[in-house]
Amino acid sequence: MTETLLGASRVRQLEDNLRALPGLYQESLHHVAPISRRTHHTRVSGSRSTERLNMSALDARHNILAVLESWSSFVVDGLGQAAPTRSVPDLTRFLLRNAEWLTEQPPAPDFADEIDGLRRELLRTIDPERGEPRAPVWECVVADCAGKISAPSQSVGTTGATRIRCSSGHAWDMHEWITLRPLVERRRKAVGT
Predict the structure, then answer these.
(1) Structural domain total, the chain
(2) 87-109 per-position pLDDT tens digit
(3) Residue 83: which residues within 8 A CB-CB, separation 6 or more?
(4) Same domain, yes or no, for 106 and 16?
(5) Are 155 and 52 in contact (CB under 8 A)?
(6) Which residue in 6, 46, 86, 189 is deepest, having the highest Cβ count within 10 Å?
(7) How far apart are CA 95 and CA 51, in angstroms?
């Protein structure tokens, strides 16, 4: 048995963070699109959409799956175990079962840092700190456009904005964000390399 690369308190913190992730992930679902308190929704033809999305919640939910899947793949490759299903509860259970092995591997500090970061990101999504700037900015996905896409992470509909916009004038409806986001990620990775 190899010795852990993390101290005992850091291992406990890592395990606590892993145990907290499924509940935080579930709670973040309630923050993707706030539920209206009105019980009768009457929409007049041609009226403005009241659609609202919380971009931070969408990003956090995407990030948690990507990071947990990545570390689970590391375990699968290292130990030859069967991969868990693609759900936050199953992925965290799998990582908790293999935490001892993971904390003995060279990337253990990175693993602990990423799990801690996921927990903090989900907590910020659920209960954002007052005054914290939360407007992510990305490179535009339109070919040869030097513009920046910015989307407020809080409920976009509160300011009347129902579109995500590029500084050069490109715009997308809120429902298009689901398909736009992977393009933003690909563009970000291409620019970073």
Answers:
(1) 2
(2) 999 999 999 999 999 999 999 99
(3) 72, 73, 76
(4) yes
(5) yes
(6) 6
(7) 37
